[in-house]
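Q: My labmate handed me this sequence with no annotations at all. I'd like to see what the chain might look like in three dimensions before we decide whether it's worth expressing. Could you predict it?
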Amino acid sequence: MSVFISYKSSERLSHRERGREAERRFKEWLDLHKIPYWIVRQDLESFSRALRDLFVKRPDFMILIPHFGFLMVDVKNTDKLKWIPDSFGLNQEEVWKYVKLEMLTRVPVWFVISNEGYGFKTWFWIPVSKVSQVGEEKERYSQLI
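A: Here is what I predict for the chain of 145 residues:
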């Protein structure tokens, strides 16, 4: 089982292109498994000022689980942390924005993580509400390349 770490950082763990690749591959995975979904538009015009004022974040997908309801999903393309075995890094501020979104909407929000090393065939799932329970807060600053 993987341990997830939430930490404060000004750095981004994945570049926009890596994120888009993960979203594209996740969409293919959902299609392969015939899982119904909606893609959430990420442009500024589709996110109301009122939602921005609430300091929440929007997910990448809404997945329909028949007879249960929807899950909001944020897809991540990130590698395991080198200094902590079986762990992924998640930005603490982003985690709390999703926790707030989940509390306001009462719709579960999950992080779904994979990367090129897994060929985007293995996806690690964790609810945002669980991240703060199982992770450790770490502060890490490094140069962006």
